[in-house]
Write a structure and sequence with these properties.
single chain; 171 residues; alpha/beta; 5 helices
C-alpha cells in the first residue's frame, strides 16, 4: 500500500516475447528454432529477471508473462524476501483475478514463509518471518474487487458513501 519512492520498470520474461522466432512460422510453414546459444541466453536473461523480482525489493516491477510461467512463484519469493528484510506484511497487497487464485496464493505464501522461517539461522530474520506468518490471515491478499471493497469499507466518508453501505450481489 505504501509505494513512496518506488521506481517503476517493466520486466518481460524473454521467452514470452510474441515476436520470438521460435513462436513464428515462416511463409513455408517451417519454424526458425533458436540456436543452443540463443536458448542459453534466454535462460540466463530469464533467471536474471526472476532474481531481480525476488531481490530488488525497493523497485516496482510490472511482470508480463503467459500463464504457467511462474508469476505467482516470483510474487511469493518477493513477498517472502520483503518480510525477511523486516517489512510488515500488513503494509503489502497482493491482488489476483479470482478467489481461487487468491486462496492458492495465501496457502503457498504461508508454506514459503514457514519454510524460510525454519531455514533461517538469524534470530531477527526468524522473528520477521514469524510475524509474517501471524499477519497472513489479515493480509490484503484477494481479488481486485475484494481489495477495492476493503478500501471503501475503510474510508466510506472519503469515498462519499454511507458507512453502512451494502454490496449488491449481481447473481
Amino acid at each position: 500500500r505504501d509505494v513512496a519512492g518506488a521506481q517503476v520498470s517493466s520486466e518481460k520474461f524473454p521467452n514470452d516475447d510474441p515476436a520470438s522466432p521460435a513462436q513464428d512460422a515462416n511463409p513455408d510453414g517451417s519454424t526458425d528454432l533458436p540456436s543452443a546459444a540463443e536458448v542459453a541466453e534466454r535462460a540466463r536473461l530469464d533467471a536474471e529477471a526472476r532474481r531481480r523480482i525476488a531481490t530488488e525489493i525497493d523497485t516496482t516491477f510490472l511482470v508480463e508473462a503467459a500463464a504457467g510461467t511462474g508469476k505467482t512463484t516470483a510474487l511469493i519469493a518477493r513477498i517472502v524476501e520483503s518480510v525477511r528484510q523486516g517489512r510488515a506484511l500488513d503494509r503489502m497487497a497482493a491482488v489476483t483475478f479470482t478467489d481461487k487464485a487468491a486462496g492458492e496464493l495465501r496457502l503457498r505464501l504461508r508454506e514459503e514463509l514457514e519454510r524460510a522461517r525454519h531455514g533461517a539461522s538469524d534470530a531477527t530474520v526468524r522473528r520477521h518471518l514469524l510475524a509474517g506468518v501471524r499477519a497472513l490471515e489479515g493480509a490484503a491478499i484477494g481479488t481486485i474487487h475484494s481489495f477495492c471493497l476493503d478500501l471503501l469499507r475503510e474510508r466510506p466518508v472519503e469515498a462519499v458513501l454511507d458507512p453502512d453501505f451494502e454490496l449488491i450481489d449481481q447473481e
